[in-house]
Amino acid sequence: MGAAFAIEASRLARNGRDWHTLIEFCALVGTVIVDEDGAYDPRLPNDRLLLRMKGTMSELNLSILRHRSLEALKQKARLGELFLTVAIGYIKVRHDRIAVDPDRRIREAIALVFSKFSEFQSVRQVLLWFRHEWGNHSPSTVGRTFAGKVWDAQAAKLRRSFGLGQCQGNSSWRREAG
Questions:
Q1: Residue 161 pLDDT level (bands cut at 50, 70, 90)
Q2: What is the rounded distance in angstroms from the CA atom of residue 45 to the CA atom of residue 153?
Q3: Looking at the chain, which runs of residues are DSSP E strands?
Q4: What pLDDT is recorded for position 44?
């Protein structure tokens, strides 16, 4: 006979499948389960029932915590205080405030993208201009640097704000009525 010691059995019990597998295995090999409340022999019907109830209560507790967390997020969203991510060009100042990014390069890059879009009236033409001006270091090939992030975010904003529609193939855009 052996013993399986659990300091916080409730954590393991939150995953019902793992908890019930442990109970079955311990019953099969004749091992008792020991936690801070006592020792349980999973071969005995009363102990087995108590262990399963502990697991069920722990799963219920986790479910309630998840539900409360989700409701809290929804409430913050309703109040306009939910900032999971902020747009390129802004930063989180505190948990409930955003501000313009103090990095001058990022502000200038965003301004350049918008000024070129105002000039060309086409996201594709802006991209071609960047490719021509930057050569092999265009925003589409920069990757996850600040310019690449700015390009990705601003191109998406421009497409949404001017109703440029959905991507057709790899490079052409279709304007949708509406």
A1: low
A2: 60
A3: 2-5, 31-35, 38-40, 90-94, 97-100, 167-168, 172-173
A4: 93
